[in-house]
Amino acid sequence: MNLTELGIKDLRELLNNKEVSATELTNAFIRNIEESSKLNAFIEKTFDKALMQAAEADRIIGTESQRSLCGIPLGIKDLFCCKDVKTQAASAILENFIPPYESTVTQKIWNEQAIMLGKLNMDEFAMGSSNETSTYGSAINPWRSSASDDFLTPGGSSGGSSAAVAANLCAGATGTDTGGSIRQPASFTGTVGLKPTYGRCSRWGIIAFASSFDQAGPITKNVTDNAILLKAMSGFDPLDSTSAKIEVPDYEKELGKNIKGLRVGLAKEYSLQKGDSEAKKKLEQIISLLETMGAEIFEVSLPHTEFALPTYYVLAPAEASSNLARYDGVRYGHRANLDKNDTIKDLYEKTRSEGFGTEVKRRILIGTYVLSSGYYDAYYKRAQKVRNLIKNDFDKVFKKVDLILTPTTPTSAFPLGSKGTQDPVEMYMNDIFTVPANLAGLPALSLPVGLDELGLPLGVQLIGNNWQEPLILNTAFNLEDALGFGSSPKNWWA
Amino acid sequence: MEIDTETVLKIARLSRIKINDTDSSDIQKDLNRIVEFVKKLSEIDVNGVSEFNFGETHLEDMRQDSVTIDDSADDVLKNTKSKNQDFFTVPKIVE
């Protein structure tokens, strides 16, 4: 078996038994990355750093200083600032930005002695559902439809992360999720993606999109790896006052418990449309599997679900318009060339006009509009109230059930260029099942459950109450164990 | 259409984003589409509903007002395209 096909847990065992060295392992992933330019997943490679870290890991393995991710090669979404490594959030406005500091989440991962292979492609500032808004061009899904040779989206915004994990370019990856940006890409690539409870991971050093939604999380090959990586990424941070002072459990230890008596809710508002028959069938299969395992299934209602996307598309752009005000061409990133008589206002306007892509500009403009005098109450304030109604819906449901089961996405991965070119809202609809958890701050995981009639991965989503990551991961672990989703894409890119 | 040409120019000015005439009509069309989409929120009665928040804030947990980051001016200035000694430079602001 090829080493790079293994996940974090299996690699940890090989490393601990000295059956492979961290340096050999890192070189194997580097080879895969070098052969994967067609996938456009890695946009900045840090191989020298990786090999130095690997040599250090080889020195440490087997000693008392060894930590939980020692020698495990990972990829990092380009939204995380990494000290002395080019970090652009896949935007031209951050052209050649080299952060003088490290994000808390990545620092925690390096403290656990993981190895950094490089930065992963994404939608510009995490605004997109297909990776197509990246200034580097889209990452490509390693999966292909049996019906055509079209390049498919790896999902967005963490599409480089999902593509890299699915194509064995790294053992696991970090992602971030503002409206579905971890779960939708995971669903499209047959990987496991978890958005933790808001406040579980520090946002410090993660380039901000919509601060009351943004949350980091892991994308991995399997549930156990997800639990391992989540533990490393989580925890209170004095530099982020919204991070929670709640102890981080040993998620891996929670796995394997039986789920007899687990109460699972099916929300009637999360129904699939006609034509998604395969996804429907898969969901039904999961429901009967849960019943076989002793779980009880209840129909529940989240009556404000239809307002989730409109709420999100007021609040997230509003926060983005404020967060992205910092890109002024003065201190870092792109700076427009000015004419002789240009003023500071011209510097701002030209820089921002040249540096931001179409979708990012659209969201800044709509955010500015909903916050502007005369429209604030009708849009922003109203959306904040509806957000509360959506949160209340979940609070009520979680009095009756422990978890909610939904599809992750309405369809499997779609061809690049096929959505949203005429109508931006068409692309937004992709996040219909994932956005509500972000509005309510809840943890949610996407688990691959099989392939559709085109041979493409499908995922289901488990949403839990705040801080219920252990329950979500354990339920996903039981399902994964029973389903044995072992499919991987055929290598056409190397 | 709720967002007319003048409004597009106004919010572009507030956003400090320059838009040219050729882009302006596309942007106007997209913004109106999004506004039409989020208008659905007007269907809900929100009387008496409070605005969303994540719960309590812990003011007692605030950090000490002391320097905790050791960025050097040199490190921070590495990323700018225009500086003079230890300062960022911008076009002349005062006459």
Essential attributes:
heterodimer, A: 494 residues, alpha/beta, Amidase signature (AS) enzymes, 2 domains, eleven-stranded mixed beta sheet, 15 helices, 11 strands, 12% strand, B: 95 residues, mainly alpha, Histone, subunit A
Rg of Cα set of chain A: 21 Å
**Could you name the ranges of chain B where pLDDT drops below 50 across 5 or more consecutive residues?**
none
Quaternary state of this entry equals heterodimer
The CATH H-level superfamily of the largest domain in chain A is: Amidase signature (AS) domain
For the largest interface in this structure, which chains are involved and how many residues does each contribute? A-B, 70 and 51 residues
Briefly note the CATH topology name of the largest domain in chain A.
Answer: Amidase signature (AS) enzymes
Mean pLDDT of chain B comes to 89
The helix/strand class of chain A is alpha/beta
Beta-strand percentage range of chain B: under 5%
Continuous helix count of chain A: 15
What fraction of the residues of chain A are assigned to beta strands by DSSP? 5-15%
Highest-level CATH class of the domain at 5-43 in chain B: Mainly Alpha
Instruction: Report helical residue fraction of chain A.
Output: 25-40%
Write down the overall geometry of chain A. globular
